[in-house]
Specification:
The chain contains nine helices and three strands. It is mainly α. Strands 1-2-3 form a three-stranded antiparallel beta sheet. The protein is elongated, with a radius of gyration of 21 Å.
């Protein structure tokens, strides 16, 4: 009897491992609609993403590469980005936002948010060494646009960083 239970348990574990391995090898995750990101992830990243979600899949040696979050600019996306830029549109020298922090340039990035995402996507590898350059980059509207595109390529809900424009002004989530 004990032998049968052990054998049955091993068979079940083997089938579960086979099932999970097949799902991971095919790039299928628990998050519907995220397979475009899975194609660029290594097997180790897929395993972490499958069990822990995208937030944890990129920690501990699995930092995202900038090519992981490329997003072609379709006419619809271009229109959406242009509209977001018009709705936000802070001066390049910055302005005090509702949370008493300065927001800069076309997409009104605050320094902490800007640095977080630029580092996340490894867009300026020497950013830590050249901190004085942050103000030059944060004031550049075309660079900000590239950061926004990577943010929404990773997760369209990242557009909620601009909640006033996306929700209150009814721009909506990006068309990707």
């Amino acid at each position: 009897m004990k032998r049968t239970i052990k054998l049955l348990a091993l068979i079940v574990l083997g089938l579960v491992a086979l099932f999970l391995g097949t799902r991971l090898a095919n790039g299928i995750s628990q998050n519907p609609g995220s397979n475009s990101v899975n194609n660029a992830l290594s097997l180790g990243q897929r395993v972490q993403k499958y069990f822990f979600g995208i937030k944890h899949a990129n920690r501990g040696g699995f930092a995202p590469r900038k090519e992981d979050y490329r997003l072609p600019e379709s006419p619809e996306l271009k229109e959406w980005l242009d509209s977001l830029g018009k709705m936000e549109n802070c001066p390049s020298t910055g302005m005090i936002d509702s949370n008493n922090k300065k927001s800069y340039s076309l997409f009104c990035f605050q320094e902490d948010t800007f640095v977080h995402f630029v580092e996340r996507y490894d867009m300026l590898p020497n950013l830590k060494e050249e901190e004085q350059e942050i103000m030059n980059w944060i004031s550049d509207p075309s660079f900000q646009r590239e950061v926004v595109k990577k943010m929404i390529a990773e997760n369209p809900k990242n557009a909620l960083h601009w909640r006033t424009s996306v929700v209150k002004k009814k721009l909506g989530l990006p068309p990707i």
